[in-house]
Amino acid sequence: MEKNITVIKGDGIGPEIVTQAQKVLDKVAEKFGHKFNYTDILMGGCSIDACGVPLTDEAVATAKAADAVLLGAIGGNTSTSPWYKLAPELRPEAGLLKIRKELGLFANLRPAYLFEQLKSACPLNSEIIGSGFDMMIMRELTGGLYFGARKTETVGGVETATDTLTYSEIEIERIARKGFDIAMKRRKKVTSVDKANVLDSSRLWRKIVNKVAQEYPEVELEHMLVDNCAMQLVKDPAQFDVILTENMFGDILSDEAAMVTGSIGMLSSASLNDTKFGLYEPSHGSAPDIAGTDKANPIATVLSAAMMLRYSFDLDKEADAVENAVKKVLADGFRTVDIMSEGMKQVGCEEMGSLICERI
Ligand code: IPM
Ligand code: MG
């Protein structure tokens, strides 16, 4: 199989971790007889420096023409980097929002699970952890507060800012369907998270989710208010299979869920549209403080590449091979500094990439 992948290395540790993920993809190509062609585009701070904007239209066109996009991370230190003195629409994150919108990537899948080998890194006590947990957050990615009209104005001499939270029936229906579809491949439970006791958009959300649920009689559906969900994630994470939620709630809950696993450097993500096309990136950020020091953990990006193999290219066997290689590396005692514990062998970003390749 031959596939064209647009690569966005981005800022901070982005280039280091993407390089390792490409190394792993090349090993998969060699082993299973595929060919992956890469085209680099700029996004985020590096694009601001080179082109004056966080994402050019040409870069978007390149990404659109590919079969999938692999992204490292973008952005810098928000208090010290000059990128954050620019107007909001010219900052690194605006590039990310633009590519999500332009490519129609409305479904964001963020798995959060406890790695058996890394149990000791989990901040929850062993009673709560029990035999582990494994959830998938399905976050709506192109609507809600992130994309509603916003303005800052002076009203009666007082500076006033407004953001708008809008969801249409169509936007809710298509993400709900993605949530139920993925639940059918997992443990068949959907927890739809909203704030229906306050927000109109949440009341519509609940109504449409209930409607879509009728098409999936095998899936158990429950509704949960977002504040309660934030509590439940630390009280009893094993109760969740698929968490289905809107953009802003999903942003917050997915960070919480990632932290609860104790290993944010391990978690991948996929952003999909209605075709096989997707953008794959680690759940963590660009960590500018450790950029260029070979300290970054490339596993989240490697596992994102595995999601690309599975969801965009239908290469399940190859995805399994990558995921198993990661498990094997952990079982063999190798750790990057973020997941290091006593008795294990500490390695850098590049060596971790090589160790994974050796096990494919
Ligand atoms: C994420 C990030 C982005 C978001 C930022 C960088 C705009 O936090 O992917 O979760 O809020 O969506
Ligand atoms: Mg976030």
Describe what you observe in this structure.
- Strands 2-1-3-12-11-4-5-10-8-9 form a ten-stranded mixed sheet, with helices on both faces. A two-stranded antiparallel sheet has the order 6-7.
- A hairpin with a 2-residue loop joins strand 6 and strand 7.
- The protein has 360 residues and is of the alpha/beta class.
- The mean pLDDT is 96.
- It is built from twelve helices and 14 strands.
- The protein is globular, with a radius of gyration of 20 Å.
- It has two domains: 1-106 and 264-360, Isopropylmalate Dehydrogenase (3-Layer(aba) Sandwich); 123-260, 3-Layer(aba) Sandwich (Isopropylmalate Dehydrogenase), CATH 3.40.718.
- It binds 3-isopropylmalic acid and magnesium ion.
- Residues 93, 96, 251 line the site of 3-isopropylmalic acid (IPM).
What descriptors fit this protein?
Isopropylmalate Dehydrogenase, 21% strand, 360 residues, binds magnesium ion, globular, binds 3-isopropylmalic acid, 14 strands, single chain
